[in-house]
Amino acid sequence: MIVETSEQPSESNPSDSRLDELQSIIDHAIHFLPAQGPIEVFVHHNTLHAFEDKSFHEAARLASKIYDANPYLSEQRYREMLESKRIRIADLKAVLADDMVSRADATIDGLGTRFDLRLSMLLYPLRTAPEAELRWVIAESDALSRFRPEVSSLVREQVLEATQKYVLSSLVRIPTANGSSTRQLADLLDEFGHGDPAHWSERRWEEFTLRYLWQVCDSGIRAASMDEGTLRVPIRGRDALLAATGQDTDRYVHETLIRFCAAFLDQGYADWRLPQREAGLFGSFVEVYGKPSLFAESWLHSLPDELKKISQAQMTPLESIDESLTMLGVPMSDRAMFITKSLLALGGWAGMIWQLESSATWVDRPIRPGSLMEFLAVRLILDRVAIDYVAREYLRFGGALSQVSDAAWKKAAALNDSHFQTTFQIFQVAQSMGWAPQAMGQMSTEDWRALIGEVRDFDELHRRCIFHEAYEKSYRTDALDALTLHCRTINNGPKEPISRPSFQIVCCLDDREESIRRHIEEVDPAAITYGAAGFFAVVMNYQGAADAGYKPLCPVVVTPKHFVRENVGYTFAGEDRRRAGTRRTLGHLTHQVHSRSRTIGGGALTAIFGSLAAFPLVARVLFPRITSQIRRRAGRFVQPPPITQLQLERYQVEPGPENGHVGYTVDEMVEIVSRLLNDIGALKNFSRLFVVTGHGSSSTNNPHESAYNCGACAGKRGGPNARAVAQMANDWRVRAKLLELGLRIPNDTVFLGAYHNTCDDSLVWFDLDRMPSSHFADFEHVKTVVDEARKRNAHERCRRFELASLDLTPTEALRHVEQRSEDLSQVRPEYNHATDAMCFVGRRDWSRGLFLDRRTFLTSYDPAVDDEEQSILLGILSAAIPVCAGISLEYYFSAVDNGKFGSGSKLPHNIASLLGVMEGATSDLRTGLYQQMVEIHEPMRILFVIETTPDAMRSVMQRHVGIRRLVEGEWVQLALIDAETSTLLFYRNGDFHPHRCESSSLPQVNQSSDWYSGCREHLGFATIRKTAIVDRPLIAEAAKEFTTEQEVAS
């Protein structure tokens, strides 16, 4: 069997350098694998993380080649948006001009400028296809007899008139003239008959002109000799065999390898353990496939002998890989791409193996280091066996394995005629540009070469890049215009001072919280809302009362050292033990039923009595809301008692999971509360109730549920973080130490933790039993406002759901979203971050009252309370930019090519190994987001609008490599706002440039529903009149007066 590399003798030999180079190649190829870990902890990230050291568009082009994927939407989609005015023609021209810089006005042999040519290629679709398909189009359609429908009637008439005039004037010269162009014209006239062309109908002239144009293009291109030469043999032998025989060796290999990987990585889903799993991936593979079997597929008959040879030679995985590459005839120059392509052929499983090996070591059944190397060794062995089998059976080739690719490619080589494809492309361009055939016939060979080079340089990927820039520019212009005009309204409008807020509430910066914050402010204009990263500065490992162990609740890039435990009150301890025992018993019984139903007897009983299970199943589909209420009531008998408390305070020096080491010291609590309040700028004028609201999501039959939870809590629910920070802020010792730091929280201010379920819009309040009776009336007011906001929020969300009527009332809308979350058949419980487009970092004053359509992450930040080093801004952006960029980019790539970067439709998904999802019973592990999550998403790079100065932003970028890489590489868009002067700066080409507002006014409505009612599509910006605009200096003055009154009272 394959042995560990470390067990081999250390003396050098001539192959050491080759193996070292091979090791480096594999290490580099690993970077291209999907970085998604187990689906239980789904953390959004940049799908093209391996390319972040390059610019966005450069990375897009490279990824298109490596992954064989689309980094942009299709040209057809962009042109549809051009027709619908989603892309403005002015923006398209501006982007094209910027892309061409100073060469836009250069002409092409008098036919027009390069700018006009490229604009025409953008505005009018160019059909491209394999040669066989194009020949069919020409033979079966009117492509050579009728102008393209996109060509305007004016251009068509001009070309026909010029051609008719030229042909009629040339008739007298044809008998005596020489030259290829004249002979072409004479031959074409003979083909059209001997009738007098002067009497031809317009229809006949049109056909003649297009045939003439085709001949001129064909002869000009062939004379220019711009062919690409012989097509290169594909790097992988599989591709050559597929082209020559139609047999896909990956299909053979993957059917075997997927089944084995699913069993090897299984985390408890399978009934039986894989034999010899502890021996590693290769050892277990040899145990399963190393012995001959009468039931093995015919192509696998030679596999046991191959495995036996490798085991007897005691090869390391690296040596086996080297041998396979040599046998397959892969030259040294192609090894890097070959290995990358081989790993990516089953990238989901390969990526998961690497994640379990390197990162997700916390899983129940970890795997040992070196498993990915063993996977690659097994993969290449199977490739060798499959290629040899297909070559013998279908190619009838009996030579060496290293010669299979060349032999197969020779058989499939002459499939494309690049001349023909180029001719068809130039033929289409000529019609759109209005080039007459006689004018093109006068072009020299060098002119033809220049024209062909220009068309090829502006290929489909380049055109889609230009379209995409214009697509983003349209939204960016509208967004920056809206912020400019909104700030002007605030700065020029009346000021309405508030003596003290009715209540304050801080939510996660999540874009889904934007709407509920807006509705809270509409219902109660005296309320103040904030946004912060949803872990609320509480970095912890958390264990709930019903949890089996601790789980991290913090950003995934942070490793928590502190532990917090939820305990049931002592009064209910006995009841909790009984319920926990009941849960274990039910779990054991459920597992036994599941296991025994797989036996012969169990299967028979299941067939007999299984129909009884149809009744609850049908009820869950037809009446999901009622069924869920019944299930919740029944579940109360096994759930922990309702009265619990957090074990927050630590008495020992070192944090840990043991009793006495759980929690934080008082000084650590002070640091947490101080950081949160400083980050959001809530340092004065506290209300009597200050609510901290975490968020998450729950839905039925949703393997991707973790992706709907709080990204700042590593794909988990943020309720415990909100509860913890509220409890810390209520501690009188914490407040005393905060006062020493200059932060005074009034004695009558009570912090309250809450949890918002973004799927069913429910709200859970924590520790109400600890709230003083003096604040009951305050809480009732807050609850009334929030309940109304929940209904309005559900109403706004429902406009996006096709199954929800547009005339629902807010109460009916709330019932609808509650039902969706419990519907077993629902593939769209909520749309999560779909439609996200912007992140605003600054004071809420400048975005309050602005309809942002649930597309904006809102992070509170007050530059006035920051220090000269911008420490607060650096801390906020260190979390906000990578997290929001990761969310945006994952949605972007899953939307532009869901088949390659996403996970396809949710409907055929099945759980595999408790680690991910497959399509059907056998497929690659599907990473990324499923189709229904992104179907309404507009794929754009997120636009960050930050309230700060250019110098401050440059300082942050210099100190944070990740932020600098994202901004300078244009993975995100960046603008800065000086709200008090209503000016914005946009970052482009390494510098900040003033934004020129193109709009003169914003629509104004009384409330959000006036703007969105009756609409399902994306909406523009609008000002909500009803929301009060407050002036910060007046708030500060009111806070000062309130503080003085409190001191006098004391």
UniProtKB/TrEMBL annotation:
Residues that coordinate or bind Zn(2+): 508, 510, 695, 710
Record-level GO cellular component terms: plasma membrane
Similarity-based family: Belongs to the inorganic carbon transporter (TC 9.A.2) DabA family.
Protein name as it appears in the record: Probable inorganic carbon transporter subunit DabA
Natural source organism: Novipirellula aureliae
Assembly description: Forms a complex with DabB.
Membrane topology, from the record: Peripheral membrane protein
Required co-factors: Zn(2+)
Keyword Nucleotidyltransferase carried by entry: no
Keyword Metal-binding: yes
InterPro entries membership: DabA (IPR018752)
A GO molecular-function annotation: zinc ion binding
Localisation: Cell membrane
Broad class of the protein's primary localization: membrane
Top-rank lineage group of the source organism: Bacteria
Function, in words: Part of an energy-coupled inorganic carbon pump.
Keywords, comma-separated and alphabetical: Cell membrane, Membrane, Metal-binding, Transport, Zinc
